[in-house]
Amino acid sequence: MEPSPEEYEGEEYAGGVVKKFMYVNRRAPHGTVYAQEALEVVLIGAAFEQDVSVVFIDDGVYQIKKDQDPSAIGTKNFSKTFRALEMYDVEKLYVEKESMQARGLTEDDLNVPVEVKTSEEIGRLMEEQDVVLSF
Amino acid sequence: MKLSVVLNEGPYQHQAADTAYHFTRAALAKGHEIYRVFFYHDGVNNGTRLTTPPQDDRNIVARWSALAEEHDLDLVVCVAAAQRRGIVDESEQKRHGKDANNIAPGFRISGLGQLIEAGIESDRLVVFGD
Amino acid sequence: MALLHTVNKSPFEKNSLETCLRIAIEGSSVLLIEDGVYGAMKGTALNGALSDAGNRLQFYVLGPDLAARGLSEADVMEGIEVVDYDGFVDLVVEHDATHACL
Prior knowledge:
The complex is a heterotrimer of chains A (135), B (130) and C (102).
Chain A: H1 5-8, E1 20-25, H2 34-45, E2 51-56, E3 92-96, H3 97-102, E4 115-117, H4 119-127, E5 131-134
Chain B: E1 2-7, H1 16-29, E2 33-39, H2 60-71, E3 75-78, H3 79-85, H4 90-96, E4 107-110, H5 113-121, E5 124-128
Parallel strand pairs in B: 1-2, 1-5, 2-3, 3-4
Helix pairs in contact in B: 1-2
Chain C: E1 3-7, H1 16-23, E2 29-32, H2 47-53, E3 58-62, H3 63-68, E4 80-83, H4 85-94, E5 97-101
Parallel strand pairs in C: 1-2, 1-5, 2-3, 3-4
């Protein structure tokens, strides 16, 4: 998942403006590409030193489920890369409590440390954002 | 205001490509600046010049090119998504040894940083997808 | 800071409207576009939930998408305002940010 040279093209951001960016993940991994390509945005975006939150709602919570092994279906196991987010200073990961409960998941099922928030808390957090990216 | 638009779906498959276009036109007509239109996921397929839609249907690619020319818009196709899906300009053609390129007029291929930069520099950013 | 949420899928196809209503904070707005406009129709199983939500959220529906689908403004639930693409732009500008609930 290392950004290629093409991706960077010297795009170090030195503008000084810091905005609140929220990445909204609502889809499961592997069945569609959105989860994987969303993560690529988060990684590239980390270079811009903005105030980033990543939220997992609905089937998005499955993106960070432990023990994913896509070898038999031949897709990429990008779930491991969520653990690298911390190194990129992307530490605000939130899952929606209602989504977890509906799917019978607990924090123990996840492969990265997250903060569990209620729907309302997620909604309030979303209200604070300058930019909301959906995939 | 400065607005940016993100389009996550390809032409015809999803209405997102149409809605994004109509929104962009309306914003321009109201005197707003469109800072960038960024094409991600299958949205990069809006940037191939090789489509031949039926005569009695809208030409989605051509109208993006026309709008870009009329208003000097910055239409940016994400390089990583484009590489996966085969949207190629001359530079990518050379870099990856392809026998052709297919980028439509008015579009340019660039990194995901351009999406983040659009979010930073614009007053509003709107996403169209499925 | 008020957010604008857009919902583009039919509530009978996908849970996007349901999730939007669960997340959206009082005082924010919801714009139904594309197949999402079916959620604005009178007489559906959603009318109760939408009426309730209407007490804390402001609803809008995109007129061109209604017309495309053979729906008239008369078919739209009370309290949901019909806007065109100009109105869509105005909503985006008037709200602090837009969340596409895809």
